[in-house]
C-alpha cells in the first residue's frame, strides 16, 4: 500500500508539472503562431498598398504608427526598417486578355516566370481573394486585389520562412517539456522515498501496534472464555454467562479481523499463486448453508467450474466469507441470497456476485462501504452486528490480488461484485 501511495504521489506531481508546462509552453507556442500570422497579414497589406513592391519607407504605414502605444504591436516590438529585406515575395498582374505579367520577382530564389504563371493560374482557379498555395518546398500566402490601373493584382508572400520561427519554438518546447518531465520524474523517484519516510514509519508502527495488541488481547480473552466454560461445567449456566460468551466471541472476531486487516496492508505478507476460484467459492458457500437455513433465507448458488485466478488461497476464502456474512447480516427476513461465479463475456475475468434482498437499501450511500470502521449508524447502536472493518479488509485483499471490488443496488438487492483475472 505504501508503494502504491508513493507512485500515486509521483504520478500526481508529474501530472501537475505536465499541466503547468502545457499551459506555459503552449501559450508561448500559441503566441508565436498568432504573431507570425499577424506578420504575414501586415506584409501582405504592405505589398498590396505598394502594388507588389516593398521598401523600408513604403512598408512602415502598414505596420502602424510605432510611436502610438495603441497601434504599436507590443509582442513584435518596434518597427525596424531593415526587417523588410527578410521577406521573400513576388507579384503579378492579369490584363484584360488574361495574360500574366510578372511585375516583381527580384525577391525570390530560382523561380522562373513560367512557374510563376503556373502558380498564378492555380491561384485564380481557386476563386478566392486570399489564401495559401504550395510552390515547391514553400508555402505562399496570396492576396488578390486591383492595382491603380484597374488590373487584377496578385501578391505572393513566402510564409514558410516566417513560420519557421513558430516550428522552431514548437520543437524547442516539446524537447524542453519532455526533458523537464523526465528530469523531474527521476528526481522525484530518488527523493520521494525520503519524503514519505515519516508516513512509512508511522504506518509500520500502526500495523505493528495492531498486531501486537491483538496478540496480547487474545490471552485474557482465552482466560475469560475458559472461566466461563468452567462456570457452566460447575452448573452456573445463566444468562449472564451466555452474554459473557457472546461478548468474548465478538471480541475474538474483532481482534482476528484487526490482525488480518493489518497484515492485508503489507503486500509482502501475501504469497500469490494460481488457485481454483470455483473450488474455494463452492467450499465457502457450503459452510454457510446451515447458517442460511437457520435464518430462514433462500440460498441460491451458481458456480462455473474450472475458473483459476492469481490469489492467496486463505485470503480469497476470507473475502468470500466476509461478503457472505455481510449478505446474511443485511438480508431482509425470509429474503434471498444469491451467489454467482461466472466468466465475464467482455474480458478474461472471473466475476463473483453476491447479492441479498434489502428493500431499505434503495437510498443508501454506497460510496463509503469499503472505508475502515464505516458504519451507517454512526452511533453504533445498529441491531446489525459487525465493526465496519470486514469490507475494508475485503477491498484491500482484492487490491492485493490486482482485482476489483464494487457494490451497488439493483432492483431490491445489494450486489457485491469481485472481479479477478483468469489464468490458465
From TrEMBL:
* Record domain Histidine kinase: where: 212-424
What is any Pfam family matched here?
Answer: HisKA
Which cellular component, as a GO term, is one annotated location? plasma membrane
Q: What is this protein called?
A: histidine kinase
What InterPro entries does the entry give? Answer: BphY/WalK/GraS-like, HATPase_C_sf, HATPase_dom, His_kinase_dom, HisK_dim/P_dom, HisK_dim/P_sf
Q: Which residues are listed as membrane-spanning?
A: 166-191
- EC numbers on record: 2.7.13.3
- First-level EC class: transferase
